[in-house]
Each structure stands twice: as C-alpha cells, then as structure tokens.
Amino acid sequence: MAAAVALALVAALAAAATAAGPPLGAYWVNMSDVTVSGLSAGAYMAVQFHVAFSATVRGAASIAGGPYYCARGSVSVALTTCMTTPGGVNLGALYDATDGFAAEGAIDNPAHLQGASVYLFAGTRDTTVDPQLSHLLEEYYTHYGAMPLAEYGIAAGHAHITDDFGNACATSDSPYINDCGYDAAGQLLVHVRGRPLAPRQAVVPEHLFTFDQAEFGGRSLDGAGFVYVPAACQAGGTAPCGVHIAFHGCLQARSNIGNVYAERAGYNAWAEANQLIVLYPQAIADVLLGNPNACFDWWGYADRDYAVQAGSQMAAVRAMLERLASGGPALAPPTGLRVANTTDNSVTLTWTLVELADHYVVRCDGAVAADGVLGVPYTVMDLPSGSTFTFTVQAATAAGDVSAPSEPVTASTTGPPPPLTAPQNVRVTATTASTVALAWDGVAGATGYRVTRDGGAVVLNTTAPEAVDSGLVSETTYTYVVAAVDASGAVGPASAPISATTRSAFECQSYEDSNYNHVAKDRAYAQLGYAYAIGSDELLGLYNTFYRSTVSEISPGYFIEGECP
After folding, report:
1. Which residue numbers in the chain have pLDDT < 70?
2. Residue 96 catalytic?
3. Which of 4, 25, 151, 268 is exposed most, by the fewest CB atoms within 10 A?
4. Contact 316, 221 (CB under 8 A)
5. Are 206 and 195 a contacting pair, CB within 8 Å?
6. Which of 33, 37, 40, 183 is catalytic?
C-alpha cells in the first residue's frame, strides 16, 4: 500500500503543475442540501463555515477537529489549546463569541443549528490533535441543539480515513489518508445529509474538474480548485443536486499532494451514485502570512474576520457555492398580482401561477408575511385597520430557488386607523465624536416621528424610522426618546429611553510598516515569532522586517489590524 500511495503522490503532483483550469461551472443545485466536512484544519474550517452559514448548511462533519472559534484569533492558542492541551478551552467564552457574532449579524443565527446533523471522528492514535477536542466540539454542538453522531473508537492516526486507500491506519504522515477498513466519507455523508445513500458507483476520472479558483479571491487560497460533478448533475440533469464541500487538512493541498485528496478521500464514488457535487477548495502556503503548511484559516492569519461570513476565505468559498448553484432553470417572477378583497384586518391577493414553482413567498412592506403559500387566492391576516401596505410575491421551489419579486401592489385595510403606539426597538446604530445615529421599528399609522434629547425640546423630526443627532460634545452621554406622529399631527406615546455616548475626539491614525517596526514603535508586540496589535491582540503576521501590515490606532494606545473604521 505504501508504494501505491507514493505513486499516487507523484502522479498527482505532476498533474497539479498544469494550468488552473476553466471557470467553475454552474449547475442545478438544491440549496437545502448543502453539507461540509474536513480534516484537522479543514475540520475547523468546516465547522466555521457551518456555524457562520447555518441557515444554508444543513450538516457538518469534523475529522480531528475542535469547537468553533477555538483559537480566538491567536496562533499560539491554535497550536496549543486547540491541538494538544484542550483543558484550556473555555466553552462558555465560545458560546458568548458565537452569540455575539450572531447579534452583530456577522454569522447566521445559531438557532439554525437546532436539529442539524453533525458527524465527529477522532482516532485513538491521533497525537496531533487531542481527541478530547472532538468531545468539546460535540458539547458545543449539543449546546445549540444539533444532533452529533461520533466515532471515537478506531485506532487511527491523524488522517482522513478510508476503506481502500492510504497509509497504515495508525500513521500520521503524508498524504494524511489512512486505510482503516472504515469508509468515513460514506458514514459521514449518510448522517449529515440525513438520508440513506444509494450504493457507491465507479468514479469517473473525467468528472473531477480543475477550475480557476483565483477569481473568487481569498488570501492564501490556491489559483486552482477541484470539483467532482457526477453525470446526473451535468448538463441535462432532470433534478437538482446536493453540494458537499470537503476542506483538506494542512499539507494536503494541491500544492502538497496534487489531487490525491480530491481523488482518494472516498467522496466521489458516493457522489456519482447520489446526485451530489463535491467541491474541494484549495489553500496554498504563504510563509509571509504565517501559513507555511497550506492550512485553511481557523486562527486568523488571513484577516480578523476569519471566523465570520466576511472572512476572506469564508466569503470566497461561499462565492464558489453560489456559482455552483447558479445554473438551475430560471424561475419567472409571478405576474398579475392584484388585490381581490380587503377588510378591516386583512388583504386578499391573487396572481398568475408560475411554471416550476411549488410554493410562493408573500411580502408585506418588504418583510416576509408568509412562506410556503401553495396557491391563490391568499389572504394576509392580522393587519391593522385603516392602514396602507405594499405587497410583492416571489415564486420558489423546494430546491431553494427563489424568483425575483413581482411588481408591487398597494392595498389599504378598511376601518379607522389604529391608535399610535410607542416605537419599539429603539437602538443606537452609530456614534462619532459629535453625532449619534438612532433607528427604531416603524409604527403603524405613523407619518413621522419626533426625537427628544435629555428630556428637553424636540431635536429632530423625521418621516423615516431613523435619525442622526449632530453638533454634540465628544465623550458625553445623551438620552433619547422617540414618539410617532400621525397625519393629523397627534403625537403617540414615547418610547423607552435609550442612552448613547459620543466617541472621543481622538482621530484614528493608520500606519503601514513592517511588523518589526510596528513592535519597535509600540504599535504591536511579538510572541512566538508573530506580531500582534497592542490593545486588540489581533494577529499581524510574522515578526520580521519583511512582512508588512497596516495597523490603526482607534483610541490612545489601542491598535487594530487594518485601516481606520
């Protein structure tokens, strides 16, 4: 078997020297059937992608991984706590980080993890990533209501596990694929997809495509990636296909082992038989970024947003998924939307049904009023009387395709308008040294709003549920209340008060320099060969005179990575 592995590596590395390939193709994809998996750094990346895009990704598999945001932006934590000393993992802090990212809109609401299928594997002979980290990941997912299935009893080393290819089972060596007589790909696909699989079919080598990955950007991502597209998912397919994203581990990239991971990890034979496209994104080594082993970014070497949707690599892989899913039959928007009836508290709509659609989404003033509407007419209920609304309708399919909105139609309920209520969810959306920006939920029947500061006179009148108070003093706290106004000029009850503090008049300054100079000039500090911004502790990269980065002082002595916000 060792000779077969060596020959496969030689052939794969030769193939990897070819051109990047054509653009990634577009296919008919069921966006409710998207799953992810990975080994080691790829496992951390798979979990990251799942948590960040949990409204899209239905399940995830981790082989020798650990909990979301384990490294917390620190390479030293990644190399110690998240690999060999799991006793330092604080799950409570990781829950807080997850919930905080969600509250900021940086990741999907973790409520989407409820009921998600998760597969976990840790080999008993793995000395690279402590198996206890998989147990901590299991606890993390259970906290959010996911359904983990774990395999912790196989004497495997640090590797992806197959039943027909690779090194001896206890090995932890290139290409980090071991033959343990256990089909990890098949086991995890059954669980994360939530359905039985048809028996494996022979892999068709011509169905593994190399594509131009450079167009999707992403720091420390290779110029080429791989995708396996079975016959049933290529042009002329009669039904949408699922997508599984498989993230390789460190030293498993195209630049290290060619296409061995994409060819021999075991996914493709299942994909051929089960209408499943397998996407294999590819990282690449970047010593200056602090990624010498072509790992996916799970500790922050690429950017500080590495664990959320805006992260360089996260956004790139999401764009690849969107490209794959852009080839299905186009759904036309509904036409002929009209108002069939109104009452004091309802509006009945009708429209022309759309071929290929199996349900519809009805929106009222831009918000979803109903999803899963099966036909016409449809009545929107529980509306306030004497009020005017704008409706649109979108066609949709069970595969996740959604059309553009219909032309809008406006309708008014009968009866007297409701009494004004106090604005809800008044919030501070931004502050500067001299301004405070506010927003709140709109009030039915309101034609405008009055904003009062510190219990005094009205300082702002606005027609929209938002306002900016200007000309303020820096580092000063102000308290606001908001009231709605109707067409007659009547003023409704005031909102609950909310306070905001203006920022310091300190002006942010950015510095572009070598990391060595950042440390020398007290903008950063050095630790274990890396530089970190003073204050935010954000990773800047290798500590030397060659690697350059930008830091910004946003308050006296507090620096962040990147330009001034």
Report:
1. 1-19
2. no
3. 4
4. yes
5. no
6. 40
